[in-house]
Design a protein that fits this description.
Layout (H helix, E strand, L loop, with lengths): L11 E5 L5 H12 L6 E6 L1 H4 L4 H12 L3 E4 L7 H8 L4 E4 L9 H12 L3 E3 L7 H4 L6 H15 L4 E6 L2 E2 H4 L7 E2 L4 E5 L5 E5 L1 H12 L8 E4 L3 E4 L3 H9 L4 E5 L1 H10 L4 H10 L12 H4 L7 H8 L4
Parallel strand pairs: 1-2, 1-4, 2-3, 4-5, 5-6, 6-11, 7-10, 9-13
Antiparallel strand pairs: 8-9, 10-12
Helix pairs in contact: 1-9, 4-5, 5-7, 11-12
């Protein structure tokens, strides 16, 4: 960890969003807060979500309240930087967990609001790949927007920041629409080459490690922290899947020229952008041994364990 540290602990924490990642972060912050007297956890949700009569929305709100977490009404998309800053100013730590659903420009808007608010520390929505290693001008333009946020945070000194790089959510590798793993056809479509690798971490593990990072002593600041549940080569996936399902899986290669041509034919397709970006083989994988979870001796869920827990076998 960096020697550049803050002596101010997180005691009043605001989480932005309560979705696939937000809820695991909230649950784990609430669990660890018990060991840090005086800590207050809050979450920002849109008013329409708070007041929704949809059962799935009500279940989320009910769980949040049962955890003793406060709910703050707010909208990252519609509110101004000034309005968001006024809300953020009530806290000492803000953690972005809204993902890309809020739009390309929202991460920078939220970063500007965080700096304007005067909070000591901000965790931006950067739970994913290593945007620095990928660089600019790649197939996925959202990555350039994330680099803009990094450059902005590095350019200012009013606020500390912590970026958590997690790789791909483990479940996404097995999404039928993504197309890398075809469970029905018993096929693995490697992105770029069989030797290309990808780092994978589950949202539950990211939530647990994020809470550990927030409360870590000495406090972590102005640093990129890496997590990894597993880092695997596409060429190793057929054997892993055969072990899980008892049937052989075929390996095919979706080469970079092929994926770039498919994207050129359908330039607005988000899935094709991700396929082409991961096929480049840069900034999407790192050794588990270099991660925060390895340094603290935390065992996260690997691909084999995820398959055992999540995939129904016929």
């Amino acid at each position: 960890m960096s020697s550049h540290i803050s002596t101010s602990p997180s005691r009043s924490i605001l989480v932005l969003g309560a979705g696939e990642l937000g809820m695991p972060v909230i649950r784990n912050l609430a669990r660890l807060a018990v060991s840090h007297p005086g800590t207050r956890i809050s979450v920002m949700l849109r008013a329409t979500s708070i007041d929704s009569e949809l059962p799935e929305k009500q279940r989320v709100v009910d769980e949040i309240r049962a955890l003793g977490v406060n709910i703050v009404a707010g909208d990252l998309v519609t509110e101004s930087v000034e309005a968001l800053a006024a809300t953020f100013a009530q806290f000492d730590t803000v953690i972005g967990c809204t993902g890309y659903a809020a739009g390309r420009d929202t991460p920078m808007k939220v970063a500007r609001a965080a700096v304007k608010s005067g909070i000591p520390r901000y965790f931006p929505w950067q739970f994913g790949v290593d945007f620095d290693a990928i660089g600019r001008g790649g197939p996925q333009d959202l990555f350039d927007a994330q680099l803009d946020v990094r450059e902005y945070l590095r350019s200012q000194t009013a606020m500390d920041w912590v970026i958590i790089s997690t790789g791909m959510f483990t479940s996404y590798l097995f999404e039928p629409d993504f197309g890398v793993v075809d469970l029905i056809g018993h096929k693995v479509n490697a992105l770029g080459s069989a030797s290309n690798a990808v780092t994978l971490t589950t949202p539950d593990d990211i939530g647990a490690m994020t809470a550990r990072i927030v409360f870590h002593t000495p406090a972590i600041r102005n640093e990129i922290v890496y997590l990894a549940g597993d880092t695997i080569r596409y060429g190793d996936l057929p054997d892993i899947l055969q072990k899980a399902f008892g049937e052989p899986f075929e390996l095919t290669i979706w080469g970079v020229p092929q994926l770039m041509q498919e994207l050129a034919n359908d330039p607005g397709n988000m899935i094709k952008k991700y396929r082409a970006a991961f096929a480049q083989g840069k900034g999407v994988a790192w050794d588990v041994e270099r991660t925060f979870n390895a340094k603290i001796g935390a065992e996260l869920q690997g691909v084999q364990a995820w398959l055992d827990s999540n995939v129904q076998r016929s």
